[in-house]
């Protein structure tokens, strides 16, 4: 495993989310690499700062307000794009469709997030999936 892979997995290492073999590799690397130990220490500091933030509770109307504002933004006449911008958007979409024809382009598609379970009613994810579920 190279140095960049170690650094990429430091957060999961810190959170105890890695398989034992990978965790052991990172532990051995941390014994000899000052830079990665420092990065791990910085991750610890970030976690402690975030834990120290006050908890924010959204109002019960938060999700419905987000949905209402987004619906208003989708209403006809709201921020009409200029003709050159619409043409550019269509050209970029066409280019993306053409490039998908070539092997190796793009990435493996996965299911949408809503397949992984319900989202809390006051979350942005809940509002998002309510909007795209139309």
Quick structural overview:
The chain is 60% helix and 0% strand. By secondary structure, the protein is mostly helical. The chain has 2 domains: 49 residues, no CATH class; 71 residues, no CATH class.
Folded structure, characterized:
The structure is a single chain. With 134 residues, the protein is mainly alpha-helical. The chain has two domains: 3-51, no CATH class; 62-132, no CATH class. The protein contains seven helices and no strands. Helix 5 (62-74) runs parallel beside helix 7 (124-132). The longest helix is centred in the first third of the chain and has 18 residues, at 34-51. The radius of gyration is 22 Å and the shape is flat. The termini are far apart. The mean pLDDT is 77.
Blueprint of the fold:
Layout: H1 3-8, H2 10-14, H3 20-32, H4 34-51, H5 62-74, H6 83-99, H7 124-132
Features:
134 residues; mainly alpha; 2 domains; 7 helices; 0% strand; flat
Query: Sheet with the most strands?
Result: none
Secondary structure class reads: mainly alpha
Residue runs with pLDDT of under 50 for 5 or more positions: none
Question: Radius of gyration in whole Å, from Cα?
Answer: 22 Å
Give, in order, the helices and strands.
Answer: HHHHHHH
Helical amount:
55-70%
Strand content: under 5%
Query: In angstroms, what separates the terminal alpha carbons?
Result: 45 Å
State the helix count.
7
What is the number of domains?
2
Identify the overall geometry.
Answer: flat
The total beta strand count reads 0
Report the mean per-residue pLDDT as an integer: 77
């Amino acid at each position: 495993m190279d140095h960049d892979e170690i650094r990429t997995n430091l957060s999961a290492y810190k959170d105890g989310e890695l398989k034992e073999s990978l965790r052991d590799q990172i532990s051995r690397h941390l014994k000899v690499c000052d830079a990665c130990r420092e990065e791990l220490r910085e991750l610890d500091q970030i976690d402690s700062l975030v834990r120290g933030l006050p908890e924010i509770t959204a109002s019960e109307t938060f999700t419905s307000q987000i949905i209402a504002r987004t619906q208003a933004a989708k209403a006809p006449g709201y921020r009409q794009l200029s003709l050159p911008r619409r043409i550019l958007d269509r050209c970029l979409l066409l280019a993306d469709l053409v490039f998908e024809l070539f092997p190796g382009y793009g990435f493996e598609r996965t299911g949408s997030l809503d397949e992984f379970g319900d989202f809390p009613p006051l979350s942005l994810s809940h509002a998002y999936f309510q909007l795209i579920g139309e």
